[in-house]
Amino acid sequence: MPESLVSSTFLFRYSVPFLYCNRLWDEAQVRLTEAYRLPSFGELESRPLFADLRGAWSESGLTFTVRVKGKAQSPWCRETRLEESDGLHVWIDTRDTHSVHRASRFCHRFVFLPLGGGRALDRPHADQMLIHRARENANPVRPDDLGVRTQTISNGYELQAHIPDTVLTGFDPAYHSRIGFTYVVMDRELGWQTFSVTSSFPFQEDPSLWGTLELVR
């Protein structure tokens, strides 16, 4: 039987619970249990999984942790070349609109790198990126407005990322309990781990290809 010309992950719109945590970001290291783990539906196509991504929300914003394993090389990261850098790339739509193909001002893209910042390129770095072909851009965000921490492990790294509510245009969990979402854990050595579709589809700029996080207390 010939292979399907349509990716199986393209045939569905994914919605997953996103659990509440009242302690998202402070001086202590963030620890989210297995209950906070987010899936990669690439499993439906037997794509390899090398990253354990977890996330939580509160009225103060969103926090993600990722553990990447199986590496023999250091991550390739440059704060001047975000599009190409290894790390966690996250897209958020605070209005969860799937009926449009161009991003609105409620759509955001953030990048969190385990390395690549500072003169020696040895510091973690976080930043906002513009979404290509957006009808309107979200409010601008400075790198210092975002939180990022990293820790090297024997065969990879652990990264913690925080997106405060103040940088999320339209974030209001009391009235909007569903947000559009997709992600890529990008790695030059291991490949891409995505939430659903791969780079064969223009999910980097098309919110209709994103999934949904249900903000659950």
Entry summary:
The chain is built from no helices and 11 strands. It is an all-beta fold and 217 residues long. A hairpin with a 5-residue loop joins strand 5 and strand 6.
Name the average pLDDT. Answer: 90
| Total beta-strand segments | 11
Total of helices: 0
How big is the Rg?
A: 16 Å
Question: Can you walk me through this structure?
Answer:
- The chain has 217 residues and is an all-beta fold.
- Helices cover 0% and strands 38% of the residues.
- The chain is built from no helices and 11 strands.
- Strands 1, 4, 5, 6, 9, 10 and 11 form a 7-stranded mixed beta sheet that branches. A 4-stranded antiparallel beta sheet has the order 2-3-8-7, with no helix packed on it.
- A hairpin with a 3-residue loop joins strand 9 and strand 10 (191-194).
Keywords for this structure?
mainly beta; 217 residues; globular
Secondary structure layout plus pairing:
Blueprint: E1 15-19, E2 51-58, E3 61-68, E4 87-93, E5 107-117, E6 123-129, E7 147-153, E8 156-164, E9 178-187, E10 191-194, E11 211-216
Parallel strand pairs: 1-11
Antiparallel strand pairs: 2-3, 3-8, 4-5, 4-9, 5-6, 7-8, 9-10, 9-11
